[in-house]
DNA sequence: TATTTAATAGAAAATAAAACTATAAATTAG
DNA sequence: CTAATTTATAGTTTTATTTTCTATTAAATA
């Protein structure tokens, strides 16, 4: 695993907030040459510390303004059934995140759709169409208070 | 609100998956000229459909390999107390996401830290240091099955 | 002490973004 | 219905950025 020095960490913080900055801008902020920044970025990409660069969209402007957390319990927990469930859940475009978790339920899904009607549709025709689903429990998002992809290093 | 045509939607999908593609690459995939792509991207940025461009990191490589969902109930729900809680929760670097939600609890926090010890520390010295917190209930992530920032348009 | 390695800087070359000009199709106004 | 305007596009030129190459310095190693 790559050892990160303070400059790497600062660089990663900058890139997490705005990946469209030029190397020149970054070099000014970090007091480095353009080449030094370039080499560091390439190294961080090559080592997999930087996974990818993406555009983040405004959910409201693309008509996806309804979010829910859906807790799911399976009926069977043998490896075969778990693998099958996970393979199916990954395919569902409405599911942005899926975690295998501790506690009362087996999985938590973060689901994003247009509205409640679309959520009902998702539950009835997509989620519960997957075999092996026992119980589900939906929690609806009233307001997004904080949402960042930037990890403090 | 900007009306998106099919080309805009395809462009947004491409940018959500890889924002480092050149306009030339995008123009090939969309069967457009470089200028046409350039103009569309600028329009989408200006209208706020594209919120920002960010680098996504590999959590494991930066020693943040412990995630939990923390459900929080407040003791008081008047506007004054809610605002105060939200203002404090936003400041906490370990909290990547915070949602005001329906159901038994008032908020769900997505918390990312190094390990269980760091989580305990977060709970004891940061979260419960905020006044007005009643109950909390932590759900630990055993495995991340799916995680995308890309919204299907 | 000599040699290698790692990190950096500066210059040059290659590439891409941005700005500009022009054209055609669609929309609007008279 | 026709002229004017707007919108979306393409091609060209200019500007800026990325990438490569060469060189230097400091630290680590033999």
TrEMBL record, chains A, B:
<dbReference type="GO" id="GO:0006355">
    <property type="term" value="P:regulation of DNA-templated transcription"/>
</dbReference>
<keyword id="KW-0805">Transcription regulation</keyword>
<feature type="domain" description="HTH asnC-type">
    <location>
        <begin position="4"/>
        <end position="67"/>
    </location>
</feature>
<dbReference type="InterPro" id="IPR000485">
    <property type="entry name" value="AsnC-type_HTH_dom"/>
</dbReference>
<dbReference type="InterPro" id="IPR011991">
    <property type="entry name" value="ArsR-like_HTH"/>
</dbReference>
<dbReference type="InterPro" id="IPR019885">
    <property type="entry name" value="Tscrpt_reg_HTH_AsnC-type_CS"/>
</dbReference>
<protein>
    <submittedName>
        <fullName>Transcriptional regulator, AsnC/Lrp family protein</fullName>
    </submittedName>
</protein>
<dbReference type="InterPro" id="IPR011008">
    <property type="entry name" value="Dimeric_a/b-barrel"/>
</dbReference>
<dbReference type="Pfam" id="PF01037">
    <property type="entry name" value="AsnC_trans_reg"/>
</dbReference>
<dbReference type="GO" id="GO:0043565">
    <property type="term" value="F:sequence-specific DNA binding"/>
</dbReference>
<dbReference type="GO" id="GO:0043200">
    <property type="term" value="P:response to amino acid"/>
</dbReference>
<dbReference type="InterPro" id="IPR019887">
    <property type="entry name" value="Tscrpt_reg_AsnC/Lrp_C"/>
</dbReference>
<dbReference type="InterPro" id="IPR036388">
    <property type="entry name" value="WH-like_DNA-bd_sf"/>
</dbReference>
<keyword id="KW-0238">DNA-binding</keyword>
<dbReference type="GO" id="GO:0005829">
    <property type="term" value="C:cytosol"/>
</dbReference>
<dbReference type="InterPro" id="IPR036390">
    <property type="entry name" value="WH_DNA-bd_sf"/>
</dbReference>
<dbReference type="InterPro" id="IPR019888">
    <property type="entry name" value="Tscrpt_reg_AsnC-like"/>
</dbReference>
<keyword id="KW-0804">Transcription</keyword>
<dbReference type="Pfam" id="PF13412">
    <property type="entry name" value="HTH_24"/>
</dbReference>
């Amino acid at each position: 695993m790559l050892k990160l020095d303070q400059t790497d960490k600062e660089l990663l913080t900058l890139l997490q907030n705005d990946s469209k900055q030029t190397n020149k801008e970054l070099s000014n902020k970090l007091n480095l040459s353009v080449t030094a920044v370039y080499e560091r970025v390439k190294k961080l990409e090559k080592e997999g510390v930087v996974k990818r660069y993406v555009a983040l969209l405004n959910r409201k402007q693309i008509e996806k303004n309804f979010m829910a957390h859906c807790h799911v319990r399976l009926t069977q927990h043998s490896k075969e059934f778990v693998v099958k469930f996970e393979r199916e859940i990954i395919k569902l475009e409405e599911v942005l995140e899926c975690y295998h978790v501790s506690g009362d339920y087996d999985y938590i899904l973060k689901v994003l759709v247009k509205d409640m009607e679309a959520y009902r549709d998702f539950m009835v025709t997509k989620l519960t169409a997957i075999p092996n689903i026992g119980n589900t429990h939906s929690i609806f998002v009233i307001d997004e208070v904080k949402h960042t992809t930037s990890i403090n290093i």
